[in-house]
Every structure is written in structure tokens, then in C-alpha cells.
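forwarding from the other thread:

> can someone predict this with coenzyme A?

sure thing
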Amino acid sequence: MAPAKDREQMKTSAVSSGGNVHVEFEDGIAWVAMNRPDKRNAMNPALNDEMLKVLDDLEVDDACGVVVLTGMGDSFSAGMDLKEFFRDLDDLPYTQQVHKRRSAWQWQWRQLMAYPKPTIAMVNGWCFGGAFTPLIACDLAIAAEEAVFGLSEINWGIIPGGNVTRSVVAAMNLRDAMYYVMTGETFDGRKAAAMGLVNEAVPKERLRARTRELAKVLLSKNPTVLRTAKVAVRAVQGMPWELADDYLMAKSHQARYLDPEQGRSQGLKQFLDEKSFKPGLAPMRRGTEGEI
Ligand code: COA
């Protein structure tokens, strides 16, 4: 990503948005908010189409080093829009239903899970049903203690589809997943943190500050290595040990080859020769190879 002085000038770089998605830049952080607060940020096809485009643009926008996904107002998202995503489309021929709904799963898990930049879900309020998928597809998640989560599908006669169930079993243990899928009971941010659904929960007034703090930690890391590391975490989950070992070796070589900072050799030099840092305790000095 671009050095800090350049990012300063890029803060205003354009990201397409039709109004259902709001984007703000702040020193390398792109705050990306679902923006239908009057509808509790329920995700309709228009929002899904826009989010797909916004995230696509941010992938190559140097003003963005970390994406924070959140919601405007008091909600993260009340899930899929029960009118515009479900009822309004139900009578269309099946192929048209799929066509209009496709952008939902494209951004909610396909795009986010493979995203080349770090992503943090900041759960500021209501988080229901379909909102679990992008929540879990983000790399990290921080919730307000007061946020309310629920797999409410059972309460109105459907199962958690749209890969919600798949997401839930990836992030929650089996008993918790079963319990909340089967009862539809709500739980708060503290409970979400205790179950490991989010990394931590903080009082709502500290949510943005804590998220910013975490984003800055990520921004301080070597982006090539960070990208490779997060892709590898997801990829090895489904691999046998032998395959994972080989895959991780190949990814390590790939990161070394692609890294303009040559982090590995710089890290070894700074620790072994210069004795200028301790990698167990703090990050190394960064820059492109010639600048260090
Ligand atoms: N789809 C469509 N519209 C939704 C919505 C959803 N998932 N969630 C909220 N809305 C709309 C409401 O219909 C209402 O619209 P209106 O002002 O035109 O009547 C508006 O958002 C405000 O909702 P309201 O229920 O009055 O807000 P609240 O703060 O009292 O309650 C929730 C918030 C989230 C608890 C409640 O809206 C709710 O249960 N939503 C559905 C959650 C859900 O089951 N999601 C899973 C979908 S798969």
C-alpha cells in the first residue's frame, strides 16, 4: 500500500456508491457502511449490487489498506430485506430470481473471504440472519457489547440459507450453532465474544476507537505478507496436513518473491545483525528494500 504521505492525498479517491453504501476514508482505513438505517440496513438487491462494486473498487484503491464493514445508524444489518430480497422476487421465473439475488452471495462470502486486504466487521447494533455471512467472512470482528445478534430465520419459517448456516458452523461450535439456529434466541455482543463469533466486545462508545486501533495495527504490517497469511488461514482449514504443509511452503515462497519490502531478509538482518528489534515483542522497521 502507498506510504502515509501519499495516502493523505488519496483520502478523497472516488469509490462508486449509489447511496445504499457509504464509504469514508481515514488514514488508510475505508469505513464501509451499509446505508439503509431506516430499514435497519436490511440488504436489498440494490445494496448488494453496490457493495459488490464498492469492495471491488477498494481492492485496487491505494487509499484503502483495511476495510471496516459496518452499518449506518443503530444497526449493523437486520439481514436480507424480507420484502425486496424475498417477497418481491418470489414470483419471478427462477433464473431471474437467481440473477437478482446473486450479488448477495457474491459479496457476502465469495468476495469477502478472498479479499486481498484485511477486513474487520464492526457490529454496532442489530445483526440478524443474512448479516452473519459477511460478519463471519470478514477476517476479524469487533462488536458493541450492546449489539443484538439473532438467527431469526426459524421465527418466520425458513432455515438460515444464503450460506448463513455454513458460516455459522465455521465460526461457532456445534452446540452453540444448533442452539441459536433452532431457537432463534437473541444474544448480545458479550456473548458473541465469549462464543468466539467476534474477537471482542467493547462498550458502544468505544467501538469506533477500538476498531480504529486494531485497523492501525494491521496497517503497520507488511501488506504482502498479511495478504498471504490471511488467505492461508482460510485455505488450510479444509486441507489434510501433508497438503497444507506443501501449500504453506509454496505460499511462503510466493510471499518472499512478491514482497517489495523483502520483509524476511530485512527482519533477519534487523534481528541478527543490527540487533535493532525483537520480533517477539514489536514489528520490524518497514520500507522498500532500498529505503531501509
Ligand atoms: N427486511 C425488510 N425490512 C426490514 C427488515 C428486514 N430484514 N428489518 C427491518 N425492516 C424494516 C421494517 O419493516 C421497518 O420498515 P417501515 O418503517 O417501513 O415499517 C423498519 O425497517 C424499521 O423496523 P422496525 O421493526 O420498526 O425496527 P425495530 O428497531 O423496532 O426492530 C429489528 C428492529 C431488527 C429487531 C426488527 O426490524 C426485525 O426483527 N427485523 C427482521 C430481522 C430478521 O428476521 N432478519 C432476518 C432476515 S433473513
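The beta strands are 21-26, 29-34, 66-71, 75-77, 119-123, 126-128, 140-144, 148-150, 186-188, 200-202. thats all i got for now
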